[in-house]
Amino acid sequence: MGRVTHPRQPAPALGDAERAPRELMTLPGMSRDVRDWKLVWIRIAGAWRSGILTVWRRPPGSAVWVAHVRWGEDDQREQRWGWFLYDPATIRPIPQPSAAAAVSAGATTVFEGTP
Q: Region annotation Disordered: residue ranges (predicted)?
C-alpha cells in the first residue's frame, strides 16, 4: 500500500490566528461546546479570509475559548479548517445586515431568528 498523505496546513505568518495546541484539545474531562454557525474573517497565511465559525469550545479547566473555523473551498492538498485560540484580533465576526436593511437592498425573502 502507498503512504497515506494528509492535506498540508497553510504556513503561518506573523499576525495569523493561532492554532490550538494539541495538549489543550486533548485535556481529560468534558469540554463545553457551543455549536454556532457565524460568518467570520480569519487571518490565515498572512491574509484575511472569510470563513464559518461552527463550534465554540472551552476545554476542561481552561480559561480560553477555542473556535472551529472553516474557510475557502474544500481542497485535497490544503487543510482549510482548524481549531484556533479565540482572539478578536485574528478572528472577527462579519456583521450581518438587519432584516430591514436586507429588504431595502432588494431582498424578497427574509428569515429572522431560528425556527
A: 1-22
